């Protein structure tokens, strides 16, 4: 797809799969603190999973740069007759919020104006953008009514002392971690993903046990994810008498660690092995000088048992937020009417009313 026109020649659509666009994409990554969600290979992977066209709107204003990763999808055929727009867009899974080389309010305002102009030039009816809890603090207040709070999340400050970090655990969780160690459960934090087969075995077992809708995140996807992440990904395990009791996939980028996928062997569920696993990863990452470990929130950003479990590791709280952009409110309302749905239902975009993929695709059923 060609880049959208811009009077100021500051705006361009970069194709996540195009080698010719990689240099300009990488330039923004070099200038901005970023997570793995903004990597072009990850955006391309997600575009393939979601059946869209992966890319990013790159903007340059006043010597500063910004990057908005998006997956552009054609509108469903029946809706094209009632809309002048041809597509809509959503973020890749996770926290792929926009990158900005400056948080100055004037720069943020100009970047936002350019992104909105660019999305309109791409022929989008709407865009659903998942914000990053650590990287978009300056952006969120500028979004006004386009900002929505989806749910709480939990993160660990890795820069405090070991005593301070351990002290933020719930007393019950500290006791259960000690009991796990006494019962012979041993945590192993790897530097890479060489033991992917061991991880996948407990992950697949967990998803099958919970009858979760996970086909999009099955082995081919995970193998593609590891290829996209490279050295940013690592695995951690808890073992008992030579058996893997629990495993998890974590990522690290610019000092930030994400708890991304996990699983627990059915035979060890009652021992709650994910507690010592997270504890060991927290210790390793703190010792390595990393700054934050994001545990995420509940399934679908809900106030649930998974969120309660995560709260046992830290008193630090964040909010998962989304940017919900509409090109033309009247046209959006027409799309919703054509589908027979309520435009204010809470699902966005409402005209694509389909089951929601949980905003945290790791499952912890030991809480």
TrEMBL record:
InterPro entries xref list: Acyl_CoA_acyltransferase (IPR016181), BioF2-like_GNAT_dom (IPR038740)
Superkingdom classification of source: Bacteria
All copies of domain BioF2-like acetyltransferase, residue ranges: 169-298
Protein name as it appears in the record: BioF2-like acetyltransferase domain-containing protein
High-level lineage: Bacteria, Pseudomonadati, Myxococcota, Polyangia, Nannocystales
């Amino acid at each position: 797809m060609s880049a959208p026109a811009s009077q100021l020649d500051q705006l361009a659509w970069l194709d996540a799969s195009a080698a010719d666009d990689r240099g300009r994409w990488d330039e923004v990554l070099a200038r901005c603190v970023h997570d793995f969600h903004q990597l072009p290979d990850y955006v391309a992977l997600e575009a393939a999973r979601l059946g869209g066209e992966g890319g990013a709107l790159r903007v340059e204003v006043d010597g500063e740069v910004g990057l908005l990763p998006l997956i552009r999808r054609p509108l469903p055929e029946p809706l094209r007759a009632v809309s002048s727009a041809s597509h809509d867009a959503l973020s890749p899974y996770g926290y792929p919020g926009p990158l900005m080389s400056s948080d100055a309010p004037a720069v943020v305002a100009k970047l936002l104006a350019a992104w909105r102009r660019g999305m309109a030039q791409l022929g989008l009816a709407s865009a659903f953008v998942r914000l990053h809890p650590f990287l978009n603090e300056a952006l969120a207040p500028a979004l006004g009514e386009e900002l929505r709070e989806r749910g709480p999340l939990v993160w660990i400050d890795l820069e405090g002392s070991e005593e301070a970090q351990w002290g933020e655990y719930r007393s019950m969780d500290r006791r259960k971690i000690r009991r796990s160690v006494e019962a012979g459960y041993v945590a192993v934090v790897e530097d890479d993903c060489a033991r992917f087969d061991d991880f996948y075995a407990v992950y697949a077992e967990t998803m099958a046990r919970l009858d979760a809708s996970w086909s999009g995140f099955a082995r081919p996807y995970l193998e593609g994810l590891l290829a996209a992440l490279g050295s940013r990904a690592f695995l951690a395990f808890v073992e008992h008498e030579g058996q893997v009791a629990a495993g998890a996939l974590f990522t690290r980028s610019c000092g930030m660690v994400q708890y991304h996928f996990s699983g627990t062997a059915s035979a060890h569920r009652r021992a709650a092995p994910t507690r010592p696993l997270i504890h060991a990863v927290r210790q390793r990452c703190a010792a390595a000088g990393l700054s934050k470990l994001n545990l995420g929130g509940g399934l679908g950003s809900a106030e649930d048992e998974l969120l309660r479990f995560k709260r046992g590791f830290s008193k630090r709280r964040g909010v998962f937020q989304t940017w919900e952009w509409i090109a033309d409110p009247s046209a959006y309302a027409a799309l919703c009417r054509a589908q027979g749905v309520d435009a204010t239902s809470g699902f966005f975009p409402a005209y694509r009313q389909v089951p929601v993929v949980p905003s945290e695709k790791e499952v912890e059923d030991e809480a």
